[in-house]
Amino acid sequence: MTQTAIQPPIDVVFSPAVKAVQARKGSRESYARMESRGWRREVDADLAGRLAEATSFYLATASADGQPYIQHRGGPKGFLKVLDSRTLAFADYSGNRQYITQGNLSENARAYIFVMDYAHRRRVKIWGTARVVEDDAALTASLMPGNYRARPEQVILFTIEAWDTNCPQHIPQKFDAADVAEALAVRDARIAELEAEVARLKGEGAAAV
Question: Which residues, at least 6 apart from 134, have a Cβ–Cβ distance to it below 8 Å?
Fold first, then answer.
């Protein structure tokens, strides 16, 4: 597949229009200080740890004329893998065959990953570029989670240009059904254990009488 080369903007996060709004609404000075320190561009231990726990994220792309599109991607923990300090990758499973994301990336490489962790009320925003790899069976196999029931169709490689985290404000706390079921199973086992102990003590008391 031929990918259109996209030169990342000087500031991938705050465009001139964004900066103008910040200036008008009074937040430009604080964000200018943030920019002076530079955006994080490489995967560190914090980001790697968050991605290793992620079972879901959203991938945003846009067509050449700017029409946006967001698509959900899900899988077992660790399905979004870190290949090196600037590259993320995942096996792209066969789905409804609309191919909107792939079509967008064929003409506009700019992309964005949004990872939401509801249980811990935290989110990660990752700006960058992405491309589709369709003809690398070894790479596809290396990215496919073991024993996961899905058919990998291709690979998406994501090059990080910048990433940031947000405060937990307004994020509702939610938990995965599997985590809730595990916690309830532990609780129920403990209740059964305590009930058995109470019955044993009652039995000993009755025998003593």
Answer: 1, 153, 154, 155
Which letter does DSSP use for residue 40 in this model? B
pLDDT of residue 8: 45
To the question of pTM greater than 0.90 for the whole model, the response is: no
pLDDT per residue over 21-34, tens digit each? 999 999 999 999 88
Pair 139, 101: CB distance under 8 Å: no
CA distances from 173 to 52, 64, 101, 176, 178 (A): 20, 37, 29, 10, 15
Q: In the chain, what percentage of residues exceed pLDDT 90?
A: 76
CA-nearest of 123, 114, 50, 45 to 85 is 45
Residue 56 clears pLDDT 70, i.e. is over it? yes
Q: 3-state SS string over 166-187?
A: CCCCCCCCCCCHHHHHHHHHHH
Please state which of the four CATH numbers 3.40.605.10, 2.30.110.10, 2.40.50.140, 3.20.20.120 is assigned to the domain occupying 39-172: 2.30.110.10
Distance CA 24, CA 26 (A): 6
Beta-strand pair 81-84/68-74: unpaired
Rounded Cα distance, 118 and 187, in Å:
22
For residue 155, give the nearest of 172, 180, 130 by alpha carbon.
130
